[in-house]
Amino acid sequence: MFDKETYISRRAALKAKMGGGLLLFPGNNPTPANYPNNCFHHRQDSSFLYFFGQQREGLFGVIDVDHDTTYLFGDDIDLDDIIWYGSVDSVASLAAETGISHSGSMADLSSFLANARQEGQTLHFLPPYRHDIQMLLGELTGMTPAQLKQAASVQLIKSVVDLRSVKSQAEIKEIERACAIGNKMHTTAMKLCSTSVTEHFIAGTIEGIALSLGGMVSFPSIVTTHGEVMHGSPSDNYLESGRLLLVDAGAETTDCYCSDNTRTSPVSGRFTNKQKDIYTLVEECHDLALQLAAPGVKWLDVHMDVCRHMTEGLKQLGLMKGDTEEAVQAGAHALFLPHGLGHMMGMDVHDMEGLGQHYVGFDDEVSPSSQFGTASLRLGRRLQEGFVVTDEPGIYFIPALIDNWRQKNHCAPFLNFDVIEKYRDFGGIRIEDDLLITDKGARILGRDIIPYHLQDVEDYIAKNKY
Ligand code: GLY
Ligand code: MN
Which of the chain's ends, N or C, has fewer CB atoms near its CB within 10 Å? Predict the structure, then answer.
């Protein structure tokens, strides 16, 4: 938790942006896994945490901009809770910790909102993504879940996005703490990468590192020798010599700031020549994005420059052909790179994605694309100092996609399908780091960078293998 003034000034900035109305911030509740008392790990809502700082379940924050008053609602625990879960602070003291002098029970919240609605105050809330919160907001506002989705406040979304997009020094420090844990996770995976372990074993071991340091993972770890499956789950298969292990994993600190990195390692410890060619091209794309990223630069332009560089490289390897610009305009490169170059990162690994990608990654100047591949780009707008974005190019050989395009002759003037066929069982390579946009350019977050240059990866494995 940051100091009290941080939350006071964040709420003041939000009030100034909104100008009026009643802003509703439901915190998250316990989420049963298989019966009510057996719950998933509690994860607080990121926007609630940003403005109200408290991790406890069952809280609800309200900022009454019209009357310049902030409230924290929630029920104090009873003796039964103390017996089973231990004692926690009262809602009033949780409120005071973040500079809020008004608090009340959930019943108080109900009557408070009934009164506000009667007085005609405008209610603003973010799009609810959990069903229990949809039900609660439904009860409080009299709306159905479908109406709630429509009624989410665009003004509040835009204001929250403005504030959360630019990270403070204290937030950067937290993200770097997550990166340090992520470094331990990834270097451990590299040390373990051998035919004597399964994908699950590596995933479990590295997720244990995140948990052992007090937080959790920032998303379910992708640990797979089938890197061509974008969000592939780890299997019980032992790693096979000659294949590549793709590990896309990150940590979340106790204050819920994330890291997100990907490394691709050769199971045998050395890349084959074919793997070296593709790896080197992905490495070049990663470094090109790092070099181009700077305040004022459109991330869409960085993405497209990386696509051009990738196309040039794939042409040299005989996998693509024709005019580079025409190939990229046609979207031919998306056979190999069906996702975007990167996304915002912060308290959510895909930061604020639940608020609507259009509002987070795009604006009046840059609109999302509908073309396959570029359509998956989650950020296109101009970068600002203080943004944290992932730099994650990849090259994949997806048999189902290759067959589909070949059958339809899709982008055929730019693709050498006979050569591509020889890579059918290659898998995929991705290299991902988290970039901080600085005053002049960008830097990779984390004091120690996880080895990613081809020679560094081979050397690290050779020296450190368990
Ligand atoms: N690291 C997973 C993703 O960015 O989708
Ligand atoms: Mn990512």
Answer: C
Q: Is the CB of 260 under 6 A from ligand 1?
A: yes
Environment class of 107 (CB within 10 Å of its CB; exposed 0-12, middle 13-18, buried 19+): exposed
Q: Which atom of ligand 1 is nearest to the CA of 262?
A: 1
Cα 211 to the center of its chain, rounded Å: 18
The 10s digit of each residue's pLDDT in 189-241 is 999 999 999 999 999 999 999 999 989 999 999 999 999 999 989 999 999 99
Rounded to whole angstroms, the maximal C-alpha distance in the chain is: 73
Tokens of 425: 């069982």
Establish whether residue 433 lines the binding site of ligand 1, counting it when its CB lies within 6 angstroms of any ligand atom: no
| Closest atom of ligand 1 to CA, residue 339 | 5
Q: Kindly report whether the global pTM for this prediction surpasses the value 0.90.
A: yes
CA 349 – ligand 1 centroid, Å: 7
Please state, in angstroms and rounded to a whole number, the distance separating the CA atoms of residues 4 and 104: 20
The reply to whether ligand 1 has any atom less than 6 angstroms from the CB of 351 is: no
Strands (E), 41-177: 60-64, 69-73, 102-104, 123-125
Strand partners, 394: 430
Report the C-alpha gap between 204 and 106 in whole angstroms. Answer: 39
